[in-house]
Amino acid sequence: MSRVHHILRSALERRQNLNPKYSLRNFAKDLAVNPSFVSRILTGKQTVPTSRLEQIIQTLEMDVHTSRMLKIELIKDYMKELGLHEKELLKEELWESVVEEVT
């Protein structure tokens, strides 16, 4: 499971610690998505679509550091799906430009 899933699971767990009745359905409702969508993301069966990323960051009120880390980890996940490796991008000096785009 990628760090993206861990970051989102941690956000859910923090909310559950504040309110023990807070559920996956509540989390999905707060994110304005279907509970099955959240479940697939939390179990690593689906990646976070880039179209939803900013909405998730804002809804979860992520700090700058966490939101940047989430974006970078999401890029790494997509790279893995495409069969690319960080080192390949570093050699081509594209990794820095990718990170700049995200931050």
Instruction: Supply the helix-strand structural class.
Output: mainly alpha
Mean pLDDT across the residues is 83
Proportion of residues in β-strands: under 5%
The overall strand count is 0
Radius of gyration over alpha carbons? Answer: 15 Å
Chain oligomer state: single chain
Write a structural description:
Helix content is 73%, strand content 0%. The protein is an all-alpha fold. The chain starts with a helix and ends with a helix. The model has no long low-confidence stretch (mean pLDDT 83).
List keywords for this structure.
103 residues, 73% helix, globular, mainly alpha
Q: Secondary-structure map with pairings?
A:
Elements: H1 3-18, H2 24-31, H3 35-42, H4 50-59, H5 64-81, H6 86-91, H7 94-102
Task: Give a nutshell description of this structure.
With 103 residues, the chain is an all-alpha fold. 73% of the residues lie in helices and 0% in strands.
